[in-house]
């Protein structure tokens, strides 16, 4: 079954750009989705289908997916972006959904 | 307002059973597939199960197959998760989520604690 590899943590200074990766063999052939989870809260969808932002999500959030890596990019990082971020996809061959292990974004 | 509200969590002894519920409102419930996702304390998200519009097609995580059953009652706008033979490893917050191939709406979760 699919295994999605995320770095456990990413740190970035306010105003800079954070990039969170999600790696798997040929992940570029899949549709990847990203969720933000603040402490004590439910996850929130921030990017779907690799690069589409739901309504209400700031333009600072963007996504890309190619080859073996999908990337969530957060520009002009703010203190409020500090959270855990998860990638996710549907593995059709295994008929299962798969989440990455999650990345904790720390704003310095 | 589109909303999902889970219930049914609580404390249960090892080997016990529990049925979780998730009520949807603010949208046409029977038009959407639905998911269950769980999160153990201090851990990441783990997908549990998915069910189609009318309950005729279901999918389960390999780690849970045979111990959980997902179902729905569209007349009541309610999704269910029946969990049996519970162990400590099932202690988690259980979320339901609406499916559009991605999970666009989540409930706040219900907590299940398995302990003697």
List the helices and strands and how they pair.
The complex is a heterodimer of chains A (108) and B (116).
Chain A: E1 9-12, E2 18-23, E3 33-37, E4 44-47, E5 61-66, E6 69-74, E7 83-91, E8 96-99, E9 103-107
Parallel strand pairs in A: 1-9
Antiparallel strand pairs in A: 2-6, 3-4, 3-7, 5-6, 7-8, 7-9
Chain B: E1 3-7, E2 10-12, E3 18-25, E4 33-39, E5 45-51, E6 58-60, E7 68-73, E8 78-83, E9 92-99, E10 103-106, E11 110-114
Parallel strand pairs in B: 2-11
Antiparallel strand pairs in B: 1-3, 3-8, 4-5, 4-9, 5-6, 7-8, 9-10, 9-11
What overall form of chain A do the CA principal axes indicate? globular
Gap from first CA to last CA of chain B: 39 Å
The largest β sheet of chain B comes out as: 7 strands, mixed
Structural class of chain B: mainly beta
Helical run tally of chain B: 0
Low-confidence stretches of chain A: none
State mean pLDDT of chain B (0 to 100 scale): 96
**End-to-end distance of chain A, in Å?**
36 Å
What general outline of chain B do the C-alpha atoms trace? globular
Largest interface, C-beta closer than 8 angstroms, per-chain residues:
A-B, 26 and 22 residues
Please indicate the percent range of residues of chain A in DSSP E strands (runs of 2 or more): over 45%
SSE string of chain B: EEEEEEEEEEE
Number of helical regions of chain A: 0
Q: Give the ordered list of helices and strands of chain A.
A: EEEEEEEEE
Task: Give an overview in words.
The complex is a heterodimer of chains A (108) and B (116). Chain A is mainly beta. Helix content of chain A is 0%, strand content 45%. Chain A is built from no helices and 9 strands. Chain A has strands at 9-12, 18-23, 33-37, 44-47, 61-66, 69-74, 83-91, 96-99, 103-107. In chain A, the strands form 2 sheets. In chain A, strands 1, 3, 4, 7, 8 and 9 form a 6-stranded mixed β-sheet that branches. A 3-stranded antiparallel β-sheet of chain A has the order 2-6-5, with no helix packed on it. The radius of gyration of chain A is 13 Å and the shape is globular. The model of chain A has no long low-confidence stretch (mean pLDDT 96). By secondary structure, chain B is mainly β. In chain B, 0% of the residues lie in helices and 53% in strands. Chain B contains no helices and 11 strands. Chain B has strands spanning 3-7, 10-12, 18-25, 33-39, 45-51, 58-60, 68-73, 78-83, 92-99, 103-106, 110-114. In chain B, the strands form 2 sheets. In chain B, strands 2, 4, 5, 6, 9, 10 and 11 form a 7-stranded mixed β-sheet that branches. Chain B is globular and about 40 Å long. Classes of the chains: A mainly beta (108), B mainly beta (116).
